[in-house]
Specification:
By secondary structure, the protein is an alpha+beta fold. It has helices spanning 11-22, 28-44, 48-63, 78-83, 85-93, 97-107, 130-146, 155-170, 183-191, 196-203, 209-223, 242-257, 262-272, 289-302, 306-312, 328-341, 382-390, 392-403, 414-422; strands at residues 277-279, 318-322, 345-351, 363-368, 374-380, 436-437. It has four domains: 11-107; 130-170; 171-230, no CATH class; 236-451, 2-Layer Sandwich (Beta Polymerase, domain 2).
């Protein structure tokens, strides 16, 4: 998070360099000033990688207009190359000093809290203390927001800074995503869904006093036998008639089949516009067993009624779209915009590319057709779709273990998928695709009430999920 906030290329330096490189003639005085500014940037760097980035920029400016062989060009340090892989790739491929300068300008962030804007010192900065510096920055950002009604406090600048920090944080694999000592934990205990062993594993990675207190409390409660393990999820299906599940599954499939061939043709044309294609078309419409199993999982694992589970089924018709990595984010947004123009409204989006050690990577989008039917698109790269097909049977076995109440430690088969997906690079700008779900006052069921055998009325409550 330091990069682009306290460290980075000064905006004036970047603008000046672009003007010099793109101009017809190069003023020696202007070039000398830019070289001096680039040299000063080496001394002002806070993070080691920032200094390593400033040095080659200064060096290439000194070599500008000189005939220097590529063998004489120093390579980027490993730490810098690891932090900015696109920069390293472009820098190595650049054939000249001018091209290498462009590679740095195009792939290294601009310093938003610039020294030119804050000559007396960057706000919140404590040299040598990046963590404390970022704490100070967020404290200042809060103050900027609360005082915005009184005066111009620079909200636009700090909004951009906080947004950039959020993107950086989403890409950090070790970040804490679940805090198991909130009101949600109390609800889980009340509903009989609390899993003590899973919670203890989560708490091990949280270096906070609250996490330590929670660990001690769990240990004491287990010793006193006041916390019992939850029953196997499959036990919750005892009171549901199998024929009711089958009837609802058939109705879901019938409605999904009615969407053919209009949706398929529409989605195919939209994807092709971005060099994408439909893949796995043999799985677009599920067999009867698939929605039956989905309904059972929703009831068993999420403690939903049959009506609630049926209302939330979004993949009785599921499409998979494969987009090339370089076109992925733009293509996804373009396809969804095209569908929106045709009346297919987005209901939910989940980006598993940015999750920690996922056993599956894609962007799953749920849409509602003009006639009210839910359907789903999985946006893949060719590589992630190939892995999905490879691990298809593994996912099914894992679902079966979950239904039996197996602990996460017993679901070890997923490790192979996690390792395979960890080697898949994040498509450019994919971290900007946030998880999202539409807020509503009442969720429309996936089927009309008349099609559900024992539904007495429309579903009256909506699950509002904040992700």
């Amino acid at each position: 998070m330091m990069f682009g906030t306290y460290d980075g290329i000064e905006r004036d330096l970047r603008t000046g360099l672009r003007e010099v490189l793109e101009g017809d003639a190069r003023d020696p005085e202007v070039l000398a000033k830019l070289r001096a500014d680039a040299g000063d940037a080496i001394e002002r760097a806070h993070m080691p990688e920032a200094g390593e980035a400033a040095q080659p920029l200064h060096a290439q400016l000194l070599r500008l207009d000189q005939q220097v062989s590529s063998a004489d060009v120093p390579q980027l340090p490993d730490a810098l190359a690891e932090a900015f892989p696109n920069l390293a790739k472009a820098y190595v491929a650049a054939p000249s000093a001018e091209a290498r300068i462009h590679a740095i300008l195009d792939n290294y962030p601009v310093c938003r809290l610039s020294h030119a804007q804050f000559p007396a010192g960057q706000p919140g900065l404590i040299p040598g203390e990046p963590e404390l510096t970022m704490r100070n920055l967020f404290t200042i950002a809060i103050k900027v927001g609360t005082d915005a009604l009184k005066s111009d406090t620079g909200t636009a600048l700090f909004a951009k800074i906080v947004e950039a920090c959020e993107r950086s944080e989403r890409g950090f694999t070790e970040r804490v995503r679940v805090v198991p000592y909130s009101k949600a934990t109390a609800r889980a205990m009340h509903d009989g869904r609390f899993n003590a062993e899973q919670t203890k594993r989560l708490l091990q990675h949280m270096p906070t006093m609250a996490a330590g207190v929670m660990q001690d409390a769990l240990h004491a409660l287990q010793q006193a036998r006041l916390i019992d393990p939850p029953p196997p999820p499959a036990e919750r299906l005892r009171d549901v008639r199998t024929e009711d599940i089958t009837l609802n599954a058939k109705s879901l499939l019938t409605r999904a089949g009615d969407m053919e061939p209009v949706v398929t043709d529409m989605l195919k044309r939209a994807a092709e516009h971005y060099s994408g294609r439909l893949v796995g078309t043999q799985h677009q419409l599920k067999s009867l067993g698939s929605p039956e199993e989905k309904l059972k999982q929703q009831m068993a694992l999420k403690k939903q009624t049959l009506e609630e589970a049926t209302a939330g089924v979004n993949d009785a018709r599921r499409y998979s779209v494969a987009l090339n990595p370089q076109d992925f984010t733009v293509g996804l947004r373009g396809v969804l915009a095209s569908l929106d123009d045709q009346g297919h409204v987005r209901v939910k989006s989940t980006n598993t590319f940015t999750k920690r050690r996922p056993a599956f990577k894609a962007v799953n989008v749920t849409l509602r057709s003009p006639k009210g039917a839910l359907w789903e698109i999985q946006f893949h790269t060719p590589e992630t779709f190939e892995l999905k097909e490879k691990f298809h049977d593994l996912y099914k076995r894992n679902h079966a273990l979950q239904m039996k109440g197996a602990a996460l430690a017993d679901q070890g088969e997923l490790q192979a998928a996690q390792e395979a997906y960890s080697r898949v690079a994040l498509p450019p700008a994919c971290e900007e695709i946030d998880d999202w779900e539409a807020l509503c006052s009442g969720r429309e069921p996936a089927l009309p009430a008349a099609e559900i055998s024992h539904v007495s009325g429309a579903l009256s409550r909506c699950l509002n999920v904040a992700t």
